[in-house]
Amino acid sequence: MRLLMISDTHVPHRARELPEQVWREVDEADLVIHAGDWVEEAVLDALRERSNVLVGVHGNNDDVAIRSRLPEVAHVEVGGLRIAVVHETGPAKGREQRCDAHFPGVDVLVFGHSHIPWDTTTPGGIRLLNPGSPTDRRRQPACTYLTATVDARGLADLRLHEVKRPGTAE
């Protein structure tokens, strides 16, 4: 099963729309995970319509309409892998310990908010993943998202992708 993980799309504040590169990944994914800060309800509707399966949560920049449609925390099981999704996990310092305490029984936690790609494993064994943002790089060298597969080994083939700017080679 192929996963696409995105967060912090901030449409239309940081970009007018999702990059075509991301839409191609949506088309190829079996499961799309969005870790919040959609900003515009139309992005939620478009992703829901185009995704095979969409799991998403609301973020701190999402209005009441999005918050009424999405939970603060979502859970999904894929091939025996227990995945949780949340927008914020707090400061980087102490993140692993906080996540162990707040997300028992989870194998993978996908989160957003910082726009900073993150991949660590907590002392309790939870894989923490932040895909960054495909539309707002902030202080990062590039806009990013994550893909992975879930197979008999669990989470495999994890890859951080840089979003190519229009006019650059892919």
CATH fold name, please? Purple Acid Phosphatase, chain A, domain 2
Secondary-structure element sequence? EHEHEHEEHEEEEE
Distance between the termini: 24 Å
Q: In which order are the strands of the major sheet placed?
A: 3-2-1-9-10
Count every helix, treating DSSP H or I runs of 4 or more residues as helices.
4
Which segments are poorly predicted (pLDDT under 50) over 5 or more consecutive residues?
Answer: none
Radius of gyration over C-alpha positions, nearest whole angstrom:
15 Å
Query: Regarding CATH, which class?
Result: Alpha Beta
| General shape | globular
Please characterize this protein's 3D structure:
This protein is about 20% helix and about 30% strand. It is α/β, with parallel strands linked by helices. It has one domain (about 1-160): Purple Acid Phosphatase, chain A, domain 2 (4-Layer Sandwich), CATH 3.60.21.10. Strands 3-2-1-9-10 form a five-stranded mixed β-sheet, with helices on one face. It has a five-stranded mixed β-sheet with strand order 4-5-6-8-7, with no helix packed on it. Strand 5, helix 4 and strand 6 (about 110) form a beta-alpha-beta unit. The longest helix has 10 residues, at about 40-50. The model has no long low-confidence stretch (mean pLDDT about 95).
